[in-house]
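Researcher: I'm comparing several assemblies side by side, and this is the next one on my list. It has 623 residues spread over two chains. Same procedure as the others: predict the full complex and return the structure.
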Amino acid sequence: MGVRLKDRLGAGPTLVVGAVVVAIFALDALLAPLVAPHDPLHGELARRLLPPVWMGGSADYLLGTDGLGRDVLSRLVWGARVSFGLGLAGAAIAAGVGTALGMVAGWWEGWLDGLLGRLADFLLAFPMLIFAIGVITALGSGFWNLILALSLKSWVEFMRLVRGQVLAHKQLVYVDAAHALGRSGAGILAWEILPNIFHGVLVLATLRVGYLIIAAASLSFLGLGVQPPTPEWGAMVNDGRNFMLSAWWLSTFPGLAIVVLVLGLNLLSEGLHELLDPRFRDPGIPR
Amino acid sequence: MRITTLGSRLLSTLLVMLAITIFVFLVMRWLPGDPVDRILGGSGQVSQQQLRALRASYHLDQPVPLQLVNFLGDLLHGDIGESVVYNRPASQVILEHLPATAELAVAATFFAIGVAAPLGVAAAVWRGSWFDRLASAGSYLGISMPGFWLGIALILVFAVHLRWLPVGGRADPGAEPAGPTGFLVLDAILHLDLTALASALAHLILPAVTMGSVMLAVLSRVLRSSMIEELDKEYVALALAKGASRRRAIVCHALRNALIPSVTVFGLELGTLLGGNMVVETVFGWPGVGQLAVSSIFARDYAVVQGVVLLYALTFAVINLLIDISYTKLDPRVSF
């Protein structure tokens, strides 16, 4: 077993690279108070717009300072908490709600299934940002409203995925066996089917975290998401636009952070897919 | 058979469009204060009687279901209310901004398809080569890159540093053709005005590349994998055995079939592209519907926001319908 897992891991450098990148950002977000050299909200105007250290800046402010004299590196580190947190929370809520509803719809079918299907058609008719803007216009901006706006639409993909899987698995022999053993419908869903379809949910969720990070950052960039002075990567890129000619690093570094984290998440998702999906397993290995 | 399925597809599109419209109506009613409060902006200079009269003139004194019926009726006449910023019908304001957005969306789509098609086919034909790996890495990067940041990076490199292209806007001042269509590139050609054409094209390049990048990345990946699948099938070998050239076997036989999954993805990505246009238009100061939407949210110009959200969602619903219908042209096995 150990050898098999090692073989599989060896076959997927995408998984390792993705996992390492995501782990670094996760640690950074968790340990922000320890990692960040300065207070992300405190600025000294006397030190404003210092360039990064390799361009003649101070070693105290490795990536320079912004227009209010705040340390860019510290804001990046704390921003991981906000941006990664937004993506993670949005995807987790969407995955939880979508999986539960998908199981219900796929198992019991009937009118509820039809209703959820129509609701999905309706939600899929909106591009993500347009839908989020509608919700935010009604509810106002801010961290929690942003999560609500993002997850209110994202559960649909999970619902569709899980519903289809449950419909397929319902026909399989192991479900009949569980029935014969006297398990209830809810018990079979939770203890028999869910473990068998969970890898798909995990792969999709990893992918959605990256997507939601970009969506949340885009809204914050437009001024509709997380509000200043909270350090959020999209809002930081927007702040930096005012200093595009004099201080290019202000927009560049937070954007780069988004690209690297989302790239890591996409690689991790692809790697998990290769690792967990039976169709990718080596057919030579007896099962 | 054919007519009934097409009919039910049309009907479900109409139902989705109706649901979207009702949703937008309800969200707008949910907002604090009614449109009269918003128009007056809390100026407090009006009597209760005037307020009542104003409310009645906007039908706000009626029960909500009746308001909804009125709203739908007005909508069919193209009336979505008055813009409090422009003091003109919101539909008129949106229509004025539409050509700029449409021009950019078309340019971005052309860019994405124009690059993705040869890229995806070449990567599939030479699968495993360094070119394939490079294209794959590039598409991963394209998917992971937020549009607002790519736009800023392109401005920094090509406009600020190299000074090859303009920073933003649609045309150089004075080089805007007063044309009939509102599409600057088209108008410049109609007026045979080369300076205006050069200016319009130069302004179009960076925003179009920014907006099309995600679609390019996704399309080239999908096309690559469906091309690989098709190239392995027997009919391609048969076409080669019958003496078809390699180029003909790839383009006329395999590509045609590989296009079907790409068309689905294209429809989905067109929605992402439309949604992304608020961001791209804001970055490049492009005077289109996306930028109008963002500024209207900040100005609390809800009639315009409502109109733009409706416009996007309805456009997307129609695109999805057209995509479904287009399958019949591409795949003879699918018919409505």
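Model: For your comparison table: Chain B touches chain A through 47 residues (CB under 8 Å).
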